[in-house]
Amino acid sequence: MDELIALEGITKHYGRIRALDDVSLSLKPGVIGLLGPNGAGKSTLIKVLMGLVRVTRGTGRVLGFPLGKGFREIRARVGYLPEDDCYLAGLPGVEVVRFMARLSGLPSIEALRRAHEILDFCGTEEERYRNVETYSSGMKQKLKFAQAIVHDPPLLILDEPTSGLDPEEREAMLGRVRILAQRMGKSVLLSTHILPDVQAICDTVVILAKGRVRVVDRLETLRKPTSPIWRVRVLGQAGPLADRMRRGGIPVESETADTLAFVAADETAIQRVWAWANETGIGIRALVPAQNSLEQIFLDAVREGTDA
Splitting the chain (308 residues) into consecutive groups of 10 residues, what average pLDDT does each group show? Predict the structure, then answer.
């Protein structure tokens, strides 16, 4: 599949409010992080992809099926984890997941077997036999995740999947998403406010602001600095090494007590820094290429959207 999602000029109005403004995207299969401040249009975009709202204008395809006319085919092939709680009170967790499997067309016995298999994958033990209204926030998140993947869809749309999870469970949730993507070949659209989650598992980033796409690119490309900047972290004070680098003709871009950032035009410059550190008696803890901060990229994109 060449394109996972292809959108052209998607616009959505709610009365006088323009939730999406001429959104055009072409996304290949993979793990995609969808970022944006509150009111950016992320939830509306997800609803458009799922066929839950009609667009004011524009066209698009999801998994090769057209928006609007192909909504049944799209929904059958998408696993959706909503931000809000979504369960049937009065049922045990395993029956809630089984019910979702039945809605997806699985026979009753197979649906029960699949529900247990997925709850094992999600780390749900004896709690699966308790009624869902007794679950903690973290347990409800795992239940929603199980509902989203029980029918083995090729595309997962996850809206704030780590919300309400403690640090250990958050890492476990991201690990499950990583397994599904890397081992099972699933594509994932991850909508979140948690930038470290995107850095941990996503290979592509989309940033929305004011209903418009401000950034869409591979994460590794976004994080590459425009110039070959390196960072060196030292044991003790970096001042003597910074002075030696300046005398040697390597400009220091920024300086803190134990870290320097400098432009290295070639490998020779790196070797000179190592030699000067030895000359000044300074131990180097790390010498690595600098990366752009995803947080700064996000803030710049949102600021651009506010100024536009």
Answer: 91 94 96 93 95 94 94 94 88 96 94 97 94 93 96 96 91 96 96 92 95 92 78 91 92 85 86 94 89 82 70
> 75 vs 47, 67, 69, 219, CA distance in Å?
11, 11, 12, 28
pLDDT in tens, 49-96: 999 999 999 999 999 999 989 999 999 999 999 988 878 889 999 999
Helix orientation angle between 93-103 and 108-121, rounded to the nearest 10 degrees = 120
- Does residue 81 sit in the same domain as residue 180? yes
Q: Tell me, rounded to whole angstroms, the distance of Cα 146 from its chain centroid.
A: 19
Q: What stretches of the chain adopt beta strand conformation (E)? A: 5-14, 17-27, 31-35, 57-62, 65-66, 78-81, 155-159, 187-191, 204-209, 212-218, 229-234, 252-255, 259-263, 284-289
Asked if 52 and 120 count as a contact pair (C-beta separation under 8 A), the reply is no
Asked, for residue 300, whether it belongs to a domain, the answer is: no
Q: Residue 29: give the domain boundaries.
A: 5-219
Query: Which residue from 131, 109, 191 is spatially nearest to 156, judged by alpha carbons?
Result: 191
- Tell me whether strands 259-263 and 229-234 are parallel, antiparallel or unpaired: antiparallel
